[in-house]
Amino acid sequence: WTAIGIGAFMVLWCAFGILALPGIIKSKAQEFVAEKFHRTVDFKDVSFNPLTLTVKMEGLHLSEPNSKEDFVSFEKLAVNLSTESIFRMAPVIEEVELEKPVVHLIRTGKNHYNFDDFIAFALKPEKDKKPTYFSVNNIQVKDGTITFDDQPKGKKHIVDMLNLSIPFISNIPSKVDIFVDLAMSANVNHE
């Protein structure tokens, strides 16, 4: 009976992960972004592999507030969650791979930027706020672009061909195999 129970659980887990979870991720992300930031987020595709615990998002577009213009976009994001998360009771991510991210930063006035809403949300005090524990490992950003439009000064800066590797960002110990070395390369203002 135990083998049948485990088999049934695995079938249900796989069906839920493949058929239901991607839709839930999409709709919850869209609701959250619209409610908290008055922005839209769209995905070309979201998939989840329940056996490897890997989430893949493709073709993401996050808009400016109340606009159709892109604030952030990327071709692909793959996040591989570790089973160690269960024992740590906190997210332990084995690997993050982000391909062709594009970020548009705009300074609209003195100490005002197009991402002020995210900063205000992150700094918002919460009652009984407990620390968030996490471990994110083997972070890789490939072929990124950042544009900075300094509107008050009438200048634009571009960082492209950005490649970044970070071994880990963590506030808890984890037993994840680190295979990424700290490295960064980029082209600034096409020089």
Layout of strands and helices, then pairs:
Elements: H1 2-37, E1 41-42, E2 45-49, E3 54-63, E4 70-81, H2 84-88, E5 92-99, E6 102-109, E7 112-113, H3 116-123, E8 135-150, E9 155-170, E10 183-188
Parallel strand pairs: 5-8, 6-8
Antiparallel strand pairs: 1-3, 2-3, 3-4, 4-5, 4-6, 6-7, 8-9, 9-10
General form: globular
DSSP strand count: 10
Please state the average pLDDT score.
Answer: 92
Radius of gyration: 19 Å
Helix % is: 25-40%
Instruction: Count helical runs.
Output: 3
Oligomer: single chain
The proportion of strand residues reads 35-45%
**What composes the largest sheet?**
10 strands, mixed
Please mark out the parts with pLDDT under 50 across 5 or more consecutive residues, or reply none. none
CA-CA gap between termini:
67 Å
* Helix/strand class: alpha+beta
Secondary-structure element string: HEEEEHEEEHEEE
What does this structure look like?
By secondary structure, this protein is of the alpha+beta class. Strands 1, 2, 3, 4, 5, 6, 7, 8, 9 and 10 form a ten-stranded mixed beta sheet that branches. A hairpin with a 4-residue loop joins strand 8 and strand 9. The longest helix has 36 residues. The radius of gyration is 19 Å and the shape is globular. The termini are far apart. The model has no long low-confidence stretch (mean pLDDT 92).
